[in-house]
Amino acid sequence: MLIQSNRYRSSSYSGMYIAFVLSFTTICIADVKAQSLSKFEADAGGESRISVFDSFDGKAVVKWDVVRPDATHASLVDHPGKLTIKTQRGSIHRKEKTSTYGDGIQAKNIYLINNPAAKEADFVVTTRVSGFTPKERFQQAGLIFYNDDDNYFKWGYEFDWKSNGGQKFCVLTENDAVSRFEYLNSPTGLNDYWLRVIKRGDVYECSYSIDGKYFDVLCERKWSSGAPAKIGLIAKNGGSSVAAELDAQFEFFSFQSPLPRDLDALR
């Protein structure tokens, strides 16, 4: 990470880089494989900025809170430089603990961080998923904004089980175990793509990219109070007992708040 500033002081704590900016600053991520978790704070009268980035380059730098961890289905070495979550049977959809279809099995290896922004703050979250083309019912991988198993917002790429073929991006909101989801018109057959969610108030804008530069916005949805407790990554097979286990390779995770000024130029 390259930081250019007229004047700043910084400290490093076991993988965490913190820079307190005292005057005008230009921040540039020069190498997306550089491990970093950074916080930037403007001078008096300016706005504070928070940036969280994990490249998964050999180890997870960010302190992840993993819901129902299963080390047999998550790795930082199977595909070096990536967090690999192998999909497996398990769901958090509606009343999954009493579901006969899923035998009450809950989703594992949901990688989360505590939301580092203030409750009212807007933010943007981005990840890249590679080597993952879901081909069976309920196979999926993507971003999740999570309060608990019954209250969350999910944006990802899934097998299109409604059409019994192909893949589509899917948005899902769940409140008090009542969920609404929608498959959106999108390219099929992708195996390398970026996912991005921009939160403005209680509205979540969902987009994807095939090059990491230009993002196509597919939908906007309202959810909850607009302040998720946790944010992170998910890959699973839902309640299906027959879907094959696939490697979902997450290349990086990025969180920024408030919103960068150049977001609209990337559409």
UniProtKB/TrEMBL annotation:
**What's one Pfam family the UniProt record gives for this protein?**
DUF1349
Extract the SUPFAM superfamilies matched here: Concanavalin A-like lectins/glucanases
Q: Which Gene3D superfamilies match?
A: 2.60.120.200
Q: InterPro entries recorded for this chain?
A: ConA-like_dom_sf, DUF1349
| Name of the protein in its database record | DUF1349 domain-containing protein
Task: Supply the source organism's classification.
Answer: Bacteria, Pseudomonadati, Planctomycetota, Planctomycetia, Pirellulales
